[in-house]
Amino acid sequence: MRGKERLIVALDVDDWSRARELAGLLRGVVGGFKVGMRLYYRVGPAAVEFLRGLGREVFADLKLHDIPSTVAGGVRALTAAGASIINVHAAGGRAMMRAAAEAAAAEAARLGIPRPKVVAVTVLTSLDEQALREEVGIPESTLAVALRWALLAKECGLDGAVAAPLEAAAIKKACGPDFLLITPGVRPPGAPLGDQRRVMTPGEAVQAGADYIVVGRPILQAADPVRAAEEIVKSLGG
Ligand SMILES: O=C(O)c1cc(=O)[nH]c(=O)n1[C@@H]1O[C@H](COP(=O)(O)O)[C@@H](O)[C@H]1O
């Protein structure tokens, strides 16, 4: 995969016309767009449908986490809207992840469209070891938990995982080269971390095994978002 195809821009803005403007400017520079709760809760499936029309990857990042039948219904809706990647929380467990994988396959087959990839969110990149232990109540290291959840996702038939780049090498090694790895928590050298805690640069993330990197604020808040995206792509080898 070329560097350009690896970059997914998180369209974390409130304004739909700004999101469309950014997508139009960036469509030739990046591999895809991510619609998260910030935009989806305002615009709905129309956001996914519009971005799909640009011919790039569309990552519907709604981090589904509920009982299996409810998650299956959410996955069917996002599949019908045209998402090419959908995420669910690994913490929802085995039955929930299996239901998500089955729902994506069944709905895509019913509609005669390509099956979206379903990936598991592991340990949020905004958590550090201390928060995981003391606030969330999980006593293992972030690496151990991310690895355990990625392996569970694979066992449940999911296509990949979302994890911090710091965990990428271990997950790729354990889950194999075909297990898709998406890493947010990516910052170009010197960029503010914001609320991210477990971060690496774009080059380091890809070096560690990330198939896709997700970048939001370093591009969205740049004076020139196209230039910022181009710089990241350049750092990945073009
Ligand atoms: O699932 C995600 O995309 C996700 C998982 C995670 O652990 N951390 C994480 O930051 N994200 C998303 O990735 C994006 C990162 O944005 P920036 O921190 O602005 O680059 C945001 O849209 C987050 O919602």
Automatic annotation (TrEMBL):
PROSITE patterns: OMPDECASE. GO terms for biological process: 'de novo' pyrimidine nucleobase biosynthetic process; 'de novo' UMP biosynthetic process. Substrate binds at residues 12, 34, 61-70, 125, 187, 196, 216-217. The active site is at 61 (for ompdecase activity), 63 (proton donor), 63 (for ompdecase activity), 66 (for ompdecase activity). Gene3D superfamilies: Aldolase class I. It comes from the Bacteria. GO terms for cellular component: cytosol. Homodimer. Catalyzes the decarboxylation of orotidine 5'-monophosphate (OMP) to uridine 5'-monophosphate (UMP). NCBIfam families: PRK00230.1 (NF001273), pyrF (TIGR01740). This is Orotidine 5'-phosphate decarboxylase. It comes from Thermodesulfitimonas autotrophica.
